[in-house]
Specification:
The two termini are 30 Å apart. The protein is mostly helical. Helix content is 74%, strand content 4%.
Length: 171
């Protein structure tokens, strides 16, 4: 973000110093990268792939949570009428299941985060390439994104980028 500020400052300085000398006009555009990323069909497809890939494990975790809760309720409800050895066995079972569930949840989150990072890294690269392609096609000299305090709708090319992404086959 700081490098973007430095670039914008340097460009502003160059435009101010050389603006009167140069007769050439520069085209500057803004793209809302977050909007483009989240509204692209590629993003939706990636989310669907991740959901398909991880839904079974998520259901298994939820089933394990439900079983653990049932055992805890049984201990609360029937603990006073159970023998001491039965109570201890049930408590150990609950503790073991709780540990396994916690480990499985941690592993699930780590795997999901890793896969999300992989999917979204590819998409960010594709968005970057499409932004560059749109910039070249539209003969834009500078495209800015995040960290902008103000921009006019006249320079917002987000819809052009989204249109191009929609034309590409969602992988």
């Amino acid at each position: 973000m700081n490098s973007l500020r430095h670039i914008l400052f340097a460009l502003t300085l160059v435009f101010c110093v050389t603006g009167s000398v140069l007769a050439e006009e520069y085209r500057i555009a803004f793209v809302n990268a977050t909007k483009v990323f989240e509204e692209s069909p590629q993003y939706k497809k990636a989310r669907e792939r991740l959901h398909t890939e991880f839904s079974r494990r998520e259901k298994d975790l939820l089933a394990s949570q439900k079983q653990l809760k049932q055992l805890e309720e049984k201990l609360q409800r029937d603990g006073s009428v159970m023998s001491e050895s039965e109570v201890k066995r049930l408590e150990r079972d609950i503790l073991n299941r709780s540990r396994k569930l916690k480990n499985a949840q941690t592993e699930f989150r780590e795997d999901l985060n890793l896969r999300q990072n992989e999917e979204f890294k590819k998409l960010r690269q594709q968005v970057r390439e499409v932004i560059q392609e749109v910039g070249k096609k539209e003969k834009i000299d500078l495209i800015v994104s995040d960290g902008v305090v103000y921009f006019s709708k006249n320079i917002d090319i987000s819809e052009l980028v989204l249109e191009k992404l929609r034309q590409l086959k969602a992988e």
